[in-house]
Structure prediction request, 501 residues.
Amino acid sequence: MSAEAVAANSAIPPLPAFDGRAIINGLRVAAADGQVFDCVSPVDGRVLTQVARCGLMDVNEAVANARATFESRRWSGMAPAQRKRIMIKFAEQIQAHADELALTETLDMGKPIQYAKGVDVNSAANCIRWYGEAVDKIYDEIAPTPRTALALITREPVGVVGIIVPWNYPMIMAAWKIAPALAAGNSVVLKPSEKSPLTALRLAELALAAGMPPGVFNVVPGYGPEAGSPLALHMDVDCIAFTGSTRVGKQIHVMAGQSNLKRAWTELGGKSPNIVFADCPNLDKAVAAAVGSIFFNQGESCNAPSRLFVEESIKDAFLEKALALVPGYQPANPLDKSTVMGAIVDRVQLGAVMRYIETGQAEGARLLTGGQAVEPVAGGCYVQPTIFDGVTNQMAIAREEIFGPVLSVLSFTDAADVVRQANDSVYGLNAAVWTRDINKAHGVARALRAGTVHVNQYDEDDITVPFGGFKQSGVGRDKSLHAFDKYTETKTTWIRIDSPV
Ligand code: NAD
Prediction:
């Protein structure tokens, strides 16, 4: 982008000084071979900074430090109450740097700044605090064995945890994994997405500022095949936790099997069905949720309700109301505090979304609104909110994850028909049912093959509940106390009791 064009975007403030170097053993370091890549903002196309392009040597160095720190027991052997205090201070550091982190996230991946601060920063801090608070409240078990022996069932940290995350909620996706992994006493090597590496690097600095020992939380930015694969293949990584596409998630499980059979946990794609029956208790609420949830985060949400099933008898009325809401979601400069839809993460993703829009039209779906790339900020990546009607479940726009602001509208005749269509997908992440009939609500919710089912809403979320998918939406669950299962081994210790009484 030219200097004149940058100057013309006067709404964009002077940039903070970003540091794109890796963090290994508590220190900022360049990639061992000195390679860097440009970190480009989708807001206006400007280069924010250069980032260390880590590779095998850097991953080896980070894992060696993580291992040495784990073995030193500086963190893994720390009293739980003390580990808790540091985790809570870490959360406070995030909150204290909320403005800086939100601005960085918005510039790096394009989401509206009001959500970067109000949702992403708050959720990440809350997640880290919640797992920190849990550390000294979880008890181990004693098994009900005969009196001649005592069997202790204890949880132990797995050791070195490799974490690979995507770009759509960079801080939250990292927090969902680092928080339980760190709270359980593990050492971590995090590889953020090459499309959004900046906040992960700051998180590691804020953990150090909170008193976390160096070497516990390392960050190696870089490309997937160059920095992610060496982590997934590493013989001294005990667990790999991945969030991203189903395509790469499958490779992660293969790499775990090809190397040391490390535990592999994957949170993958979705094509979530949102089912509205004619007896929906509040049509306006259902319309607002359907439209708001698919366009939130520019449609770049794994759990976006991208397949909308509306019972035939109310479909026309539903779509009329939905179209009336679309003008409120036009993309705009994400740095403007009133913006609700920002930029698509980069030109590659923008191209992918536009190809799906072309495919939908070629397959015979009816474009009701949107469908164009626009430039509310010169040089940026933006797509209009887009709705297709007349979609069938066999079309690519109903089967494949678009990861953009594109809603596919389908119809159905009865509960059996819609459950069959909704479950006819390789994915099983989220789903929703709207009906005033309690039997229908429970029956359909039970029949849907999805990790989370919403009834008469789509926006409830809390750190206390597990999140993850059935089928090819992944293996394992983030959030809640269940997440500790991923980052701990269960050990049984038998103690012989030769009682004198
Ligand atoms: P992606 O799979 O392309 O990349 C995810 C991460 O994997 C990135 O850090 C990338 O560098 C890395 N990677 C890529 N190739 C790799 C390889 N060969 N070896 C190791 N690492 C590699 O996904 P994305 O485009 O960044 O993110 C979008 C996807 O993430 C969507 O499919 C979305 O549904 C999914 N997602 C799922 C959840 C969930 O909780 N289920 C949450 C958010 C996003």
